[in-house]
Amino acid sequence: MKKEGKKLKEKVQVFSDSEDETIQSPVVSDDAYESFSEGDDFSKNSDSELESGSGSESESGSEESQFSEDENQDGENPSSEVGLSDGIDNFNQGDQSGSDDSREVVDESDSSEDEVAPRNTIGDVPLEWYKDEEHIGYDIAGKKIKKKEKLDKLESLLARTDDPNSWRKIIDEIEDEEVELTKEETKLIRRMLKGKAPHADFDPHAPYVDWFAWDGAKHPLSNAPEPKRRFIPSKWEAKKVVKYIRAIRKGLIKFDKPKEEPRFYNLWGDETEKSGHGLSYIPAPKPKLPGHEESYNPSLEYIPTQEEISAYQLMFEEDRPKFIPKRFTSLRSVPAYEKSVRETFDRCLDLYLCPRARKKRINIDPESLKPKLPSRKDLKPYPTTCYLEYKGHKGPVVSICTDPSGQHIASGSHDGTVRIWEVETGRCIKVWELGEPVQHVAWNPLPELPILAISMGQDVLVLNTGLDKEEQKTIADLLRVETPPSAPDDPDSVGSSVSWSQYDRYEGIRIKHFKSVTSVEWHRKGDYFSSVMPADILLIFWFYFSVLIHLLSKKLTQRLPFKLHGLPVSSMFHPTRSIFFVSTKKNVRVYDLVKKKFIKKLEAGVREISSISVHPGGDNVIVGSKDGKLCWFDMDLSSKPYKILKSHPKDITNVAFHRNYPLFASSSDDCTAYVFHGMVYSDLNQNPLIVPLEILHGHKSVNGRGVLDCKFHPRQPWLFTAGADSVIKLFCH
Amino acid sequence: MPKHYRPAGKKKEGNAARYITRSQAVKYLQVSLSVFRRLCIFKGVFPRDPKKKVKGNHHTYYHMKDILFLKHEPLLDKFREMRAYEKKVKKAVSKKNKDLAERLLTRKPTYTLDMLIRERYPKFIDALRDLDDCLTMVHLFATLPAIERENIQAERIHNCRGLSLEWQAYISRTHKLRKAFISVKGIYYQAEVEGQKVTWLTPHALQQVMPQDVDYKIMLTFLEFYETLLGFVNLRLYHSIKLKYPPILDPRLKALAADLYALTRYADAKDRAIGANNEESELRLAQLQDQLPANEPGALMNLVENVTDDNEEDEETRACKSLFQNKTFFLGREVPRESLLFVITAFGGVVSWEGDGAPFEESNQDINYQIVDRPTQSHRFISRDYIQPQWVFDCINARILLPTEEYMVGKVLPPHLSPFVDDEAEGYVPEYAETIKRLQAAARKEILPMPGGEDDDLENAQNLLAEGIIDRTKAKEAAERRQKMALHEKQYHEELQKEMQGMQETSDLNADEIKTDGDEETDDTPASQPFIDDDTNMSMVSMSRKRRRLYEAMMLSKERKKANVETLETRKKNIEKKKKTSSD
């Protein structure tokens, strides 16, 4: 395929094959490849323009023609034998003007000595010296060698594209000619690029031939005797062998592969009980089973309406339902559940991160939690319904009291009046206009002495009701204060601070205190009565004077000979014995008045005690508190409450025992009064029986206050309640 | 140091000594947190709730005994060994010591979880009791794609799939499936194995969503344990029905992704082999089975006649087995084949499907039901019913063959109800549940005297439905009549009472003049409501605080339930109202 009549070109054409990049910078270090290194130098100056020679004959073909293809072509072409010679030395002289020095092709030698001298004789001078000249140098005869006409770029490109062998053409710049590499040459280049010897038949690893003749030498290189170690076995090797032997014997080194055991076997073959590690295993709760709403096709009522779904958005994140039911008309339309991996993951987290604890789940009827109480029918009679209303007061009725016979009832109100009503008819018999809000009213417990004690502001009034006509004389005597009592010798008396005087407006006595009096209580014999003044905490002195006991017959006053700890709320005389109860805000203190001894402290454990009542037997006390709790104390049992009844949502204002019936009641600011059955047995081993009986409604709330007082009728199982709505009600059975 | 020496500040007893926090535990065991987590998952150690949280509320507490239990675990040493080994390999590789690295790679330490399973489940029944999560997880992973990034390897997915199918094959072979429910989340199955109810969820066979924020490491750790557990459980179950485990499957069917069918075939083949006292290898048998004509529904029937089986089976299993007995099903292309194949064979039916490896063709004349899930069916055989897949599930849950009319192709399906709900306890019974109950009752009474013909059965059921409807209308009428009667009676009584009260009122008025009429009225009629409250209040008064709180909590939950039922009822009313207006 060689074209003999080809012009030389100034340029070395680079390979246009895919291997171009590798060929562009070959590393040639061996002397044997000098010719190529020259060619390589040329390629560096490949900026100059291409010149088209007589490339018209060049066959058209693709630039990218494969090397193997060329090989085949070469194989077919007998002229390839010519190409065995060095391509660089091949040139065409046909175009040379005046130069006839065509050289013979040297066969089969690539050594530098064999190389034919170049046609150009300029030697190793820089080529740019001839850049502007017409010639490129001189031939051996000293004639100028003319430069060839250059093809312009387009033409050269066309020529290259037309010529299938263009990729193996290079330009020899010194000779200014184009050289086509033969197949063998390209092979050589290829091998060199791979770092191999250029010729395939060269063996780089030929066995070494020692050309030095040892045998005939007179003197050996070394005359040392053979060392001992060459004759005895190595100790270290022996040691290593022993080590291996031991390892093999021990089974540390195995030569045969381990047998494939079946992965699974009967793990629970012997069902022997194995004990755990002592801690109770708490199995994880099973995931919740799906309900109807999780069906792919639930009934229509399980699907929330659009409004409900939008309402979910307004809910708190925690309250929002996790799953919103959806309906699919057929199984094929059900999509993959997007949270299935997520939910399984959450379950995994629950399994190993959630603390587990055994919780007792009670599966009982909630009604069975209620205590078994005797039926209320058996505990009759007790007040159930409102039969009478006593109307007349203008302000809230704070205190009521029945007279010992049960015919009359006295009531004190914040409108400054005290009224006496006839119980059975509801008629108001008497009205005292006192001018100041009344705090407390109390009848004298003696039936023959119809006297009323009233606490009002800083005064305690003892007034004659005038109901008993026969005893008027004695009452008048009793209620007369003749002379101001002389200064007493008794240290307990407090005559100086309390003054007894005749009450001018109505028939009675006025006992002036130094503080406002909240409650007045009579002794059972009707001669003594106590008054309570809640003193200021800062004035410690008044602790001794906050509870006073008055003696009506002698018009004497004495203080309680004990120090009180806390603010007194109310006081109470024991119904049979000379025992006195004082309730402070925190607890109830019990004193013996005869022995002048402190007996007991009853601790209610409530926030603030508001009222106290003593069972007619005297061993049981109930205490009402401002947090709505009612405490029943059994005095013989303990100083702690026997039972605490949380009945009212609001403050308890008063508690009361019935004198004959086993009843007690509590009234509260929530406008209700509770009636309880409170049976105290004479047998000391039996605990009192407490049964809630009835809730009495009827009063209205005024300024946040409801029922202010409740009292039982002394004989009948009737209950009077006084309300903040200025009405007194009578509840009968 | 004396033995009783206790460092200052260390507690000897009480919560402070008994419980330690997680970080303390990790420090105590000298492991990394991830190893601790793996250990906890494998050993089944969970945090506990101490009464008094010494270190504060935001910590998780482990019992000291649990931690000691972990400390003495051989697996812990194994984990340490593996860590050391990894270090060795890394070092060898980084030092370019190729020989050593290769030698080390052949000696990689491995561990097994066998003894842990034995330890956690000392008896087989314990393992069954705790199988729910295991099955759900394995079934989920059987449908997941293998993701290299998350270290979910394809072989594990294959293993999961194999295990789940083996389990299903056992369940369907022994007819232990009790309930099945198609939910939005997937299909729930409940089986009863050795008296234990095992419930699991299989996701719908679709591409699953893989969230990014899930730690797949944890799930894979769980899966590792579950795979081992299910393997042992399956082995035990297979041995109990005298099958070899792991089963050797027909490669042809396996290639067609009809694994479950291959497994059932395997089981059947083995069974027949036992019957013939043939002691050939399983492989040979499977091959033999393969050579047999595929179109042989009688194969399953052979099993039913197995006498030994009958003795062991309880009433329910027998009922389950005979539900679809002598019924032949054909599954359409669009139907979830695997689940239906499982369910129908579990209830004694014979199934084929459209596609390769099917035992018989669509044109087979024995087919009773063809299950299709498409809007319309063009070509129909007259001899069979074309039904939607829900019918199978509803039949299973009702344990009767429901009339097929409502489940025909293209029909709007009746609601699919959950079999896991106790409607009476819930307080609300959906309408369709009542219908099913009526059908069940009818089936129990009517079918007994009748000879058990297949075709008759079907017609019977349809007749029964009609009868049920007639009955229902009758019952309704009767109820209405009764109500009317009751109303009349009530009126009469009220009148009587009014008369009586009138008498009393007049007498009362005579006695008590002050009493106002208004008061009386309030006492009589509207006050009755507060009085009911009073009763509860009164009993509350005498309760202790603890009991009162409990009572209140119970009432609260009751009310919540009631509210739920009420919303359902109102929704239903609204729907009915809408229907009426639209029909009008």
Protein architecture, described:
The complex is a heterodimer of chains A (733) and B (584). Chain A is α+β, with helices and mostly antiparallel strands. Chain A has a 5-stranded antiparallel sheet, with no helix packed on it. Chain A is elongated, with a radius of gyration of 65 Å. The model of chain A is unreliable at 1-110 and 486-492 (pLDDT under 50). Chain B is of the alpha/beta class and 584 residues long. Chain B has 5 domains: 17-72; 112-246, no CATH class; 293-301 and 312-420, BRCT domain (Rossmann fold); 426-499; 545-575. Chain B contains 25 helices and 9 strands. Chain B has helices at residues 15-18, 22-29, 33-43, 64-71, 74-94, 98-105, 114-120, 124-129, 131-143, 154-173, 216-240, 251-255, 259-275, 282-291, 298-304, 307-312, 315-321, 337-346, 390-398, 423-426, 431-446, 454-511, 517-524, 528-541, 545-583; strands at 19-21, 61-63, 177-182, 187-193, 196-202, 328-331, 350-353, 369-371, 385-387. The radius of gyration of chain B is 33 Å and the shape is flat.
